[in-house]
Amino acid sequence: MDSIVVRGNGPLSGQIPIAGAKNACLALMPATLLSDEPLTLTNAPRLSDIRTMTELLASLGAEVTALQDGKVLATSCHGEINPVADYDIVRKMRASNLVLGPLLARLGHAVVSLPGGCAIGARPMDIHVDALSALGAEIELKDGYLHAEAKGGLKGAVHELRFASVGATENFLMAASLAKGTSVLKNAAREPEIVDLAKCLRAMGAQIEGDGTSEIVIEGVDRLHGATHPVVADRIELGTYMLAPAICGGEVECLGGRIDLIESFCEKLDAAGVSVEQTHTGVKVSRKNGRIRAVDVVTEPFPGFPTDLQAQMMALLCTAEGTSVLEEKIFENRFMHAPELMRMGANIEVHGGHATVHGVEKLKGAPVMATDLRASVSLILAGLAAEGETVVSRVYHLDRGYERVEEKLKGVGAHIERVKAS
Ligand SMILES: CC(=O)N[C@H]1[C@@H](OP(=O)(O)OP(=O)(O)OC[C@H]2O[C@@H](n3ccc(=O)[nH]c3=O)[C@H](O)[C@@H]2O)O[C@H](CO)[C@@H](O)[C@@H]1O
Ligand SMILES: C=C(OP(=O)(O)O)C(=O)O
């Protein structure tokens, strides 16, 4: 397994290009199952999760061809469709569950393996099941698989999610786009990735209004056609790289970044003593004079502070002046980076869903282990702030969500190398 070696850094300077959003692209790719015409996605990120979704869609009978070095995905699904999403692929990635809604809508039935729990929490599927059942599907769990059937096709319905789940909103949107009649989804998730999916579905001929708000109205249509859609910028990759100059000092511009995608995060950076500016080409970040100040953070659904930036924010706050409290409200087990950061000299106490971070003057490099995607990158950021060398092992998690991380950070002057497994 590869590892990443980081050495404590001085100020950074330069530009980092921000890729298309992993979490948008993983929802857009299954939309190809909704039409027999080609769907082309531009600005796609080059990540192992995208390759896993490609593998899953191929197993269902769709074709996904990576063009222009993987930045463009030409997808199509005009032949016979296999309704079974097998455990061997689904278990690799939670987002595999996003084929359930499209398969049901196109075929009227689907058999999709449960993704299983993952390191950050149990992540059940009950909200997805309730949402698709509201559209008339009968769904039963047998031998670890969800067996779903909509006799006579899906029918539009009014449904309220018990929690604004991102994935359940995406499955409902795709399924309701081909259902008969009107659907209204209340307490819908409002994340930018939902808005991006709705934009793409509209380009394919779907009738959707209200995406980006808590109530989405979908008028079902008989068929969807092909389209070309650019994947929205990755707000989590953006936030991650914005933290690099916040930690090391200097000034970095994240090209293609949009502040409006992460306003709550930018407010916390401002309070911590980091300047953030939207430019014509991206987002410019520099550290104001003096030490980073402690801030409290609560993770919440959009537009709140994103859970996917909590670990990286903790890395910044480890060396802040004062005590910060981070409350994780989305996933029950998302502080696994804390003990690893403590190996580097951080002073953190975790009690249930709260982590109290007492800022220390300096972190010290150490061997640490990546436990999940965002935890991995938080250890790299902490390594940039530490004295000496940090070796982050198990970085395959990182490759799920960050393309060319070493190259991008090296480009602004960071001391970082990948050591390939022999
Ligand atoms: C591929 C993708 O887009 N992943 C993102 C998506 O995950 P994902 O779509 O899985 O996240 P959800 O919004 O569904 O999950 C939020 C919370 O709801 C719970 N839940 C969810 C569904 C369900 O049926 N039952 C249930 O209890 C989950 O366990 C979790 O505690 O949104 C999360 C929250 O912003 C992000 O952290 C993930 O990076
Ligand atoms: C939790 C994440 O992804 P996934 O939902 O694919 O596990 C993430 O992107 O931080």
Automatic annotation (TrEMBL):
Main location as per UniProt: cytoplasm
Pathway recorded for this protein: Cell wall biogenesis; peptidoglycan biosynthesis
Residue positions, PTM 2-(S-cysteinyl)pyruvic acid O-phosphothioketal: 118
Compartments, as annotated in UniProt: Cytoplasm
Catalysed reaction, written as an equation: phosphoenolpyruvate + UDP-N-acetyl-alpha-D-glucosamine = UDP-N-acetyl-3-O-(1-carboxyvinyl)-alpha-D-glucosamine + phosphate
Entries under Pfam families matching the protein: EPSP_synthase
Family: Belongs to the EPSP synthase family. MurA subfamily.
Descriptive protein name: UDP-N-acetylglucosamine 1-carboxyvinyltransferase
Taxon lineage: Bacteria, Pseudomonadati, Pseudomonadota, Alphaproteobacteria, Rhodobacterales
